[in-house]
Write a structure and sequence with these properties.
Immunoglobulin-like; five-stranded mixed beta sheet; alpha+beta; 258 residues; 5 helices
């Protein structure tokens, strides 16, 4: 006799039915019931009446149906999310492309407007300065800028006052100085109105000449301003006659564009 036949006899059923009725809900619903015994449904069915077995199978079928519905819902939701995300990405890319195109168009328009309305007035500040080099026959062993001994150079200094070489003093110190303009080159366009502000920063006195404009004296702390139209393409020189040949600058006038 099989285990099932034995359990199914009237005598056995009479003994176990009260227990099955008492614990049926526990077997079907508790966390120790159908979920735990799913792999052994065949064995569980030995202890449950035919009606109970039907109820058990219904619960299992309902559980499978619920799981399948959940899976279907998840798949559908994932599909919708994918479609919406793709649409957002496409719309975003289109928006970026449109904004870039509009930005480039606006930049082009602004550039054109700036070129057509750009002022022809050009303003520059030109400083008179000199560069100094200090050295010592004995060297400078201490201080913020120590240096090794340096021989006094046997150089030919050009005439004009723009380059000076001072011989060593009693301590062995000697100096090399060059006068210049800062800046020494300016670029403008033809028909620009050029304004130059000369400022005497370093040097007690200068005489400055600008080609086609004139000559004027300057002393330290003074500012002298001149204005003129750059009506011809070429080079306009400015220089200090008493600090040649180093103190020379030029204004480069370019031809008109457009």
């Amino acid at each position: 006799m099989s285990l099932y036949d034995y359990v199914s006899t009237p005598t056995t059923l009479a003994l176990i039915n009260p227990l099955l009725n008492k614990y049926k809900n526990w077997l079907l619903n508790s966390k120790f019931g159908i979920q735990r015994w799913n792999p052994h449904v065949e064995f569980v069915s030995l202890f449950i009446t035919q009606t109970d077995k039907s109820e058990l199978m219904d619960k299992m079928n309902n559980k499978k149906t619920t799981i399948m519905k959940k899976h279907s819902i998840i798949i559908a939701a994932a599909t919708i999310i994918t479609i919406v995300s793709s649409t957002i990405v496409v719309l975003g890319m289109q928006s970026i492309i449109l904004q870039t195109a509009l930005g480039q168009s606006n930049s082009s328009n602004v550039g054109s407007a700036t070129n057509t309305t750009q002022s022809n007035n050009k303003d520059f500040w030109i400083k008179t300065v000199h560069l100094d080099g200090f050295a010592n026959l004995k060297g400078i062993p201490t201080g913020p800028d120590p240096a090794p001994p340096e021989k006094f150079p046997n150089s030919t200094i050009p005439a004009g006052g723009g380059v000076k070489l001072t011989p060593p003093d009693k301590t062995g110190a000697w100096k090399f100085r060059v006068f210049t303009f800062e800046p020494s080159q300016i670029v403008v366009n033809q028909d620009d109105k050029v304004t130059l502000h000369f400022a005497d920063v370093q040097g007690a006195h200068y005489t400055i000449t600008v080609d086609g404009v004139g000559t004027f004296p300057m002393s330290r702390g003074q500012i002298h301003t001149i204005s003129f139209p750059a009506d011809k393409v070429g080079i306009i020189k400015y220089w200090s006659p008493d600090h040649m040949p180093s103190m020379v600058g030029q204004i480069v006038v370019l031809s008109k564009t457009g």
